[in-house]
Amino acid sequence: MRTMGTMDEGTAAKNETDSGAADGVTPRGDVRETTAKKERARHRQKNRRRSSNATPNAGHNGEHAHSRALNQAAEKARAHENQGTERGRKSQAAEVAPDAALPEKVPDDPRKIAGAPLGKAQLAAMGKGVQYGRNTENFDPASTLVRPSMRILVGSPSAEKYDRPIKHDDVVIVPEFFCAENDWSLYYTLIEEMTAVQTGAREQKGSEWISWHEGAHLICKNPTGSKTFAMIQDRMGDYFGISRKSVGTRFNWYRDASDWKPFHHDSAAFNPHRAKNQNCTVGVSFGGERELAFLHAKDPDMKIYFPQKNGTLFFFGRDVNINWKHGVNALSYDEQLAQLGKGRISIILWGLAANCVDEAGSPPMLPYSGPRK
């Protein structure tokens, strides 16, 4: 009835003529028009009452709610459009000059020939088309512009400093940083110097070997009497731009092939005081080859192992220390026999790397229960 009553005056007049209404009888067109007018009048009066009773904060009445819903729908549509545009902007190929060092006769890129069809990856980069495939996780290049659980990088042993920005998800491995893999001279020099400090006429306080991590290996809390240790510490800090003011150190000795290191977090992951002065862990391995192992803190089945050969330098960032536990894997019985009783030294340095890049989405620190008693 309401729909029929919204006809224009010309249509209503035609209905009146066609009806052949007798005098004194209200034509059906008039009934419909009158009903429509009354309906519209009721709606206008109802809306006026709502408007007069509304307060500045009364946005929940029917008229305001309808308007708000329309605005929200429009904003959502604009956001969806902008999201596609932003995704395309972030993932689009940068307009740069071709590589001048390429041979002159390199054929043109077939994707850039006029009229060439666009693939799913090209369309997805523009914010169009299908992003997923039967055996493809995502065709959109922007889907890869996210933080990883861990980023593995390899540094150059010949460089004076690490030449890339450091991120908190990074693990950096630098093979043969201090010496060739088969040159064990630094390993034995360190043992000789520590022995001299521990047994000499002027024995240095705190330089003795002590059992650590419930007997898993040995440490020296004060190895500063070793000149080689001091040289190694300085070079490690210089390579990663770590201020000497913030440095903490550890001298670990895996005396033979049976020693190892259980999984753990370094204390900066949960100790607020340490976290102020430490955003990375740096270490160097001398002697027998072992595996630096990482165990994901929330997934015990996720493990990553890195070979630690003689002379290898390693680094991992703040968020790696929070998201992962780390340790040094034990060797099997046969592997211990193959090592012929050879040990391993790891010198550890904790500090503030000035070249670190902060990113959104870093994990919070782990719960802290106070210092160990």
Automatic annotation (TrEMBL):
Residues spanning the signal sequence: none
InterPro entries to which the protein is assigned, alphabetical: AlkB-like_sf
Annotated region (Disordered), positions in chain: 1-114
Composition skew (Basic and acidic residues), residue ranges: 29-38, 75-89
Bias (Basic residues): 39-51
Protein name: Fe2OG dioxygenase domain-containing protein
Source superkingdom: Eukaryota
